[in-house]
Design brief:
The chain is mainly alpha-helical and about 220 residues long. The chain has 10 helices and no strands. The chain has 2 domains: about 70 residues, DnaJ domain (Helix Hairpins), CATH 1.10.287; about 120 residues, no CATH class. Helices cover about 70% and strands about 0% of the residues.
């Protein structure tokens, strides 16, 4: 049976200290405790995973045994067990990490399709469906902000598909929907200007050549 990635569940790096593990547990347990999310099956399932991850990682012996199993599983190239659900806070963390990664790329050598694919991988329809019971519109709108920032270097042709997914985020406000639409229109306008740029440059070059020719004829 595939092991769970307890560090991902607690939204931590594998080298996290015991204090970091305790802080992450308290934060997530408070947010997704069943008493605060009555009737929310996703939150309840996620809370159980958080508690399970904490029980293992906070115990030195269990953590060491888990590390052995985790390292063996990773070295074999096999995937960890699937998470129960993606939460708004996890999506926000992933969106910020992607934005930071894209911000360090060379815009002139950037793989536009690759960046588009990475953004879409964070918000497929199944993830959007999982976000609905959690609510937390603030985290979703913050995640949207980072996703839009990551998409800024992309041409218009790569934006339309992204905008369609962004608009499906279940917790965003009308203002956020309008922001997506403005972003799309700005990219479309830039695309139209770029399409006109080449013919204009050719026309200017032709006029300059014609002027040079006329001046040469008059001298």
């Amino acid at each position: 049976m595939a092991p769970k990635d307890y560090y991902t569940i607690l939204q931590l790096q594998p080298g996290a200290s015991l204090d970091d593990i305790k802080k992450a547990y308290r934060h997530l347990a408070m947010r997704y405790h069943p008493d605060k999310n009555q009737g929310n099956t996703y939150a309840s399932s996620y809370f159980q995973e958080v508690r399970e991850a904490y029980e293992v990682l906070s115990d030195p012996e269990k953590r060491e045994a888990y590390h052995i199993q985790r390292n063996y599983w990773k070295s074999s190239g096999r995937a960890f067990a699937e998470r129960t659900a993606v939460t708004p806070s996890l999506l926000l963390k992933q969106a910020k990490a992607l934005h930071d990664k894209v911000s360090h790329m060379d815009v002139f050598r950037m793989d536009h399709q690759g960046v588009q694919r990475q953004i879409l991988q964070l918000i497929p329809d199944e993830v959007l469906n999982q976000l609905t019971p959690f609510g937390d519109s603030a985290a979703q709108e913050d995640a949207l902000h980072f996703l839009m920032e990551a998409a800024k270097p992309l041409p218009y042709l790569f934006i339309t598909k992204l905008a369609a997914q962004w608009k499906k985020l279940p917790g965003i406000s009308i203002a956020a929907q309008e922001r997506i639409q403005r972003f799309l229109k700005e990219k479309q306008a830039a695309h139209q200007r770029e399409k006109l740029r080449t013919p204009l440059l050719i026309l200017v070059a032709f006029l300059l050549c014609y002027l040079v020719y006329r001046l040469a004829r008059t001298t």
